[in-house]
Amino acid sequence: MNNIKDHENLEKKIVLLRLDLNVPLKDGIIIDETRINKILPVVKFLIDNNSKIVVISHIGRPKGKVAKSLSLKPISKNLEKKINKKIRIINDNILNLKKENLFNDSNEQIVFLENIRFYEAEEKNEYSFAKQLASLGDLFVNDAFSCSHRAHTSVSKITEFLPSFAGLQLNTEINALKKVTTEIKKPVTCVIGGSKISTKIGIIKNLIPKFDNIVIVGGMANNILHFKGNKIGKSIKEENCESIINEIFETSKNHSCKIIFPQDVLVGKNINDISRVKQIDEILDDDLILDIGPSTVNTIKKIIDRSKTVLWNGPAGYFENPNFAKGSIEIAKAITKKREDRSIYSVVGGGDTVALINQIDAIKDFNFVSTAGGAFLEYLEGKELPGIKALK
User: Fold this and answer.
1) 103: buried, middle or exposed (CB in 10 Å: 19+, 13-18, 0-12)?
2) Domain 175-381 has CATH 3.40.50.1260
3) pTM across the whole model
4) How far apart are CA 180 and CA 188, in angstroms?
5) Residue 236 bridge partners (DSSP)
6) According to the CATH classification, is domain 4-168 in 3.40.50.2300?
7) pLDDT for res 335
8) Distance between CA atoms of 302 and 370, rounded to whole angstroms?
9) How distant, in Å, are the alpha carbons of 36, 82, 124, 319 from that of 22?
10) Residues 6+ apart with CB under 8 A from 208
């Protein structure tokens, strides 16, 4: 896989730069700028090398239709301020564009194509659309690891028509995940949350032989509590996953990997409620489990304290309500405390987890923070991602 840094001469080359700028927006205002901040190195590198940059990205899921609320304009304006360069957004239909007409004058260095998902052909990984897109540049750079599990036109098919390279962020992301899964310092712990255990079974099974501890929190833990014969009230639970959970425990026995799940929890009657600590045998029919309890927090902190490597994906509770954010915050603090004396290597991934650590201003306190959700998990599962495969 060629890295864009290895390209001999980028002077005046038109670079089609695939980025993931799918940031959370509310009424056109950007809520979290993490994804924009992470692409600054590749943009500045190309500017310093006098390239012409055509940014290709998406926001939301417009399903092939133009939606004004999903325009990349707020993102382009935000980036404009960060790099102190004028950015023009091209609203013309991509199918009518020509390479020689992309830049208005010799001083213009960066333009945005409007949301690539406004085109139905993007998600179909279409040959003719890829060919037209490729005709707009001299080379292609993928710096959108978080989109690389998608077999979409601007992620994988486009590489059939242009010299293609990995961006700086994509390379950093892969190296960080390799360090966790192949160049491991033991003991290794994985803290994994989220609501669906079935979507993460592949990851858990793949990590069990390599990891010493797998800590299951969040909605996923409710499935385990129920499997173990505990009442979970009206808490979120996935149906028909008994065999999956059984498989997790059986596999862990064969590889001396401990599976840790809550011993106590925080409950409310609804998501906006105050929190109450309950042991797992005290749950009432109208209780909603929304966080891990203090004993569970202490157990996890002790495990992290003994670990040399930690991978974290998925909050421990419904952190949007501060009453149920304590478990996640304590996990974050335990990891960052260990990192202060450089005795741990920590990787965090997934949008919700990143949003949480942003809330407590701890993003700089982890070795690597990935904004990728699906791509992060599929890579850990051992799958070959279409966007990465296409660069090889």
Assistant:
1) middle
2) yes
3) 0.84
4) 8
5) none
6) no
7) 94
8) 25
9) 9, 17, 19, 22
10) 214, 248, 251, 252, 255, 257
How open is the CA angle 302-306-311, to the nearest 5 degrees? 90
Amino acid at 385: L
What CA–CA distance (Å, rounded) separates 75 from 28?
Answer: 9
Do the Cβ atoms of 293 and 266 come closer than 8 Å?
yes
Q: Report the 10 Å Cβ neighbour count for 18.
A: 28
**292, 278 Cβ separation under 8 angstroms:** no
Phi and psi torsions of 67, nearest 5°: -135, 115
16: left (phi over 0), alpha (psi -120 to 50) or beta: beta
Domain boundaries, given as residue ranges, for the chain: 4-168, 175-381
Q: What are residue 54's DSSP bridge partners?
A: 16, 111
State yes or no: pLDDT of 104 exceeds 90. Answer: no
Radius of gyration of the chain, Cα coordinates, nearest whole angstrom: 23
75 CB contacts (<8 Å, ≥6 apart)? 21, 23, 30, 36, 57, 59, 112
pLDDT for 373-389, tens place per residue?
788 888 888 889 999 99
Q: How far is Cα 77 from Cα 87, in angstroms, rounded to an integer?
A: 7
Q: Please, which residues bridge with residue 288 across strands?
A: 268
Q: Which two tokens stand for residue 39?
A: 């692409």
Tokens standing for residue 61: 């899921």
Best CA proximity match to 290, nearest among 360, 223, 219, 392:
219
Residue 81 makes CB contacts below 8 A (sequence gap 6+) with: none
Measured CA distances, 317 to 155, 215, 293, 357, 375 (Å):
33, 13, 10, 13, 22
Same topology between domain 4-168 and domain 175-381: yes
pLDDT digits (tens, 9 = 90+) for 276-327: 999 999 999 999 999 999 999 999 999 999 999 999 999 999 999 999 999 9
